[in-house]
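Dear colleagues,

For the upcoming journal club I promised to circulate an example of a predicted protein-ligand complex. I picked one with pyridoxal-5'-phosphate because it came up in last month's discussion. The inputs are reproduced below in full, followed by the predicted structure.
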Amino acid sequence: MAKFPIDEFKGRITPFYYYDLGLLHTTLDALKAAVGQSPFHVHYALKANTNPAVLKLVVEAGLGADCVSMGEIRAAIEAGFNPEGIFFAGVGKSDAEIDYALANRIGCFNVESLPELELIAEMAADKSMVANVALRVNPNIDAHTHHYITTGLEENKFGIALEMLDDAVALCLRQPNLHLYGLHFHIGSQITDLEPYRILCNRINKLVADYASKGIRFNVLNVGGGLGVDYDDPDGNPIPNFKAFFDVFRENLDLAPGQQLHFELGRSLVAQCGSLITKVLYVKEGVGKKFAIVDAGMTDLIRPALYQAHHKIENITSASATTDVYDVVGPICESSDCFGKDETLPLTRRGDLLALRSAGAYGEIMAMGYNMRPLPSSFVR
Ligand SMILES: *Cc1c(COP(=O)(O)O)cnc(C)c1O
């Protein structure tokens, strides 16, 4: 079990997100060591977590930023990311967002459709600018992850279908206000089996070779993010195996001299440094069941309700040597507002604090005000 500063938790209003910045620091160091001397550039996917304390460490580590909205671009600029290192992805960029991104001279648009490409060209022309664009390709690869977080299949809304890529490339080449900067891929999230990435490398090699034979070269290949974390054993595996992940690309992707390889990692950088701390309100006896009713709900951490995800649950204040079995549930009027069924915990009482582990990614940032609940606060150390 991780060490929590329990004394500093006492008296705080629950629920709140706790971030262990020491672990985030160690994780970023491990990432840098795994990159080593390779021509790899890592961008942080802001959508995983934009807590200012988290962003500050990521900026200090020298990463770029992968943004999916005007709000994220603004947060990235305010946090100190270099605009050139900000890439803008997303299947539905609005006119106002494109305008804002151009005005702030971000590094690149990751473009997901032909009509979007036309709009960016038009808006760049109006500003007498040349916009860097990377084409997001839908490589039709099954990432073997939950169907709500797979993104690289033909049936998904993301990316430009392989059949239409030639048209998109041709449009970039004849449009003076577009600079074709690279190709972009992102096949899904919470990917723990690295095989889909190997398949992705092979597919990219073939595509790049096909275009090279036509004299078309890409400065940047961007393979997205998606590396998974160990939700079952956050203390056993607090830092993802970045080296094994990068090695798949080192061993399987043919990079031309001078060509850069970009990654966009979100979850794997920040998930393990965060926990949602919640207080037990009541222990209720049901028929053949005990419910530990806590003051955090799906409004504070939606992953279990949205993706059937499970976060490891620990009672961090009970000193009891005996255990019991509980369903840990929140207060929201939805049956999916449940963090765990049949959880074995030390004897749990009203007032105990529970930690929902590995909640640093897609946790606080997805909190909402349903039931007119206040948003959770955060505490960093
Ligand atoms: C969400 C997203 C990422 C980050 O995904 P993780 O699974 O958190 O690493 C990277 N790139 C794109 C385009 C995304 O949409």
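Two points we might discuss: The radius of gyration is 22 Å. The chain has eleven helices and 17 strands.

See you all on Thursday,
B. R.
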